[in-house]
Structures are given as C-alpha cells and as structure tokens.
Design brief:
Mean pLDDT: 90
Largest sheet: 2 strands, antiparallel
Distance between the termini: 17 Å
Strand content: under 5%
Low-confidence stretches: none
Radius of gyration: 14 Å
Strand order of the largest sheet: 1-2
Order of helices and strands: HHHEHHE
Helix content: 55-70%
Shape: globular
Structural class: mainly alpha
C-alpha cells in the first residue's frame, strides 16, 4: 500500500517537484564550505519528500548536543521556517478534500522535519 501511496504522492502530491527543489537547494548550499551541513540536510529532506509514506522520523534531539541546537537555530532563521510554512499551507490545501487527507498528513510530517532537521533520523 505504501508503494501505491508513494507513486500517487510523486504524481499528484507534488513529490517530484519538491524533490527537485530540495535537491537543487542542497547542491547550491554544498558549493560553499559553510553550507555543506545545511546542504546535506536538504538532501535528507529531498529523499524523504520523494517517498514519505511508510517513512518513520526518529527525533534524537536530546542525545546529540549543542551543535545540533545551534545548527537548527541557524536553519530556522535562514529559511527553515518558510519551508515548514510552505508544507503547512500545502497540507491545508490538500485537506480541503477527503481524497487529499493522506497527502495533507504527509505534508504535516514533512513540516515537522523541515523546521528542525538536524538531529532527526528518517527510516
């Protein structure tokens, strides 16, 4: 069932467009040495947005240290907030119809990861 849902997500839920947006953003961030950690998080989000159904997010913020907190604060200040807002707006648009509710749920899950991706593992 997750395979069918992920295929529908790629076609109808905007998964392929979001994948390329995150991928291009990650590549641009990796052009600078300072942006490499942030680019790697964009790559993590890109592959998560490609197949969110059946993926599990494990929050490990409490065990990672202060560097994770600093990077998450920088992430939020320099764009993470707006990425999360975009996912929430898309979730609201998909939630208008009953058919779009599973896609809305995935966008809410993506918003949670997009607001603070450092210290989160995706399985």
């Amino acid at each position: 069932m997750n395979l069918v849902a992920n295929i529908l997500w790629i076609i109808l839920g905007g998964g392929i467009i979001l994948f390329f947006e995150y991928l291009i953003g990650g590549l641009l961030l990796c052009l600078t040495i300072i942006g490499i950690p942030f680019g790697l998080q964009k790559f993590k989000l890109a592959f998560f947005v490609l197949a969110p159904f059946g993926s599990i997010v494990n929050n490990t913020h409490s065990t990672t240290g202060c560097l994770t907190i600093i990077f998450n604060v920088l992430w939020i200040l320099f764009g993470g907030f707006w990425i999360a807002v975009t996912h929430v707006v898309l979730a609201l648009l998909f939630a208008i119809t009953i058919v779009g509710l599973p896609f809305a749920r995935q966008h809410i899950k993506l918003a949670g990861v997009a607001i603070a991706p450092f210290g989160q593992k995706i399985y």
